[in-house]
Amino acid sequence: MTEFTITDAAADTRLDRFLRREIPGLTQAMLQKHLRTGKIRLNGAKAEANTRLTPGDTLVVPEIAPPTKQPRARHVVKMDPARLKELEGMILYQDESVIVLNKPAGIAVQGGSGIAVHIDGMLDALQGDSEERPKLVHRLDRDTSGILLVARNARVANKLSIAFRSRDVEKTYWALLASVPEPLEGRIDLPLKRVDLGTTSRAEPAGRKDKEAQKAVTDYRVLDYAGKRFCLIELNPQTGRMHQLRAHCLALGTPILGDAVYGGIFSEHFAQQLHLHARRLAIPHPEGGFLTVEASLPKHMRDGLAYLGFTVPEAQKPKRTR
Questions:
Q1: Is 141 a catalytic residue?
Q2: Fewest CB atoms less than 10 Å from the CB: which of 84, 173, 215, 227?
Q3: Catalytic option among 57, 120, 141, 143
């Protein structure tokens, strides 16, 4: 038997897609047979192919016969000098356990159909003398910029995943919104469900009795505003649902600027892209103490703030308390 413990990096993935990615040679027919007969167990119970995984879930799978074909090799991004310099320029902090990146908007965190360049495929370049390649601990949407946490090895990744699951991690995002929420500070407690739309997915509000509803909570605070048309907001997600902040801002009636999927307006005065940034991350350090890191805003958001006349403090230097 093989046992998998789901980390934050695999959260919200369909069970069948996760297993086909992790077990080379596992066909959909084989998977369905093992699910139907109850040989695949999720948290000790019979599982369904379309179940969405959550951090901390345990999957037990019977031994699978060796594949007759060679599995597809993991995609590694070719790192020429320019791309290596780009990756090194993303590093905000690094030590023997973790690497913290400031991911640019527009770069995917993980690979997929039609994605040639992604952060996960670049991590081999940061392995150095370690026996293990670095591992992603969480994710950001492709068009969201900001802090991305990477573990140096599997042991550290497991510790950090537990911290995320236990909500011992403080995540702070900044966004530019169309309109200003009322009140200027509060909590959005609105369950969400994932809706598949062909090759894409979307988060939509769900009733609390909806079987597909997932608890989603976001604290927010307006930092500055321009009349009733625009504002800079600080968002602190207390849960980690797909597109949670984007869906919650839309639910407030104040969508994020440039968010084509969730109602964000486009204006000639702002860049035609998502204005959402992972600004700050505070985590229990795997080797003890606490680590706080801030990421400077991308150019398109700085330009938007300048147009509105907002003053934004520079990002603080990383701070680790022991």
A1: yes
A2: 227
A3: 141
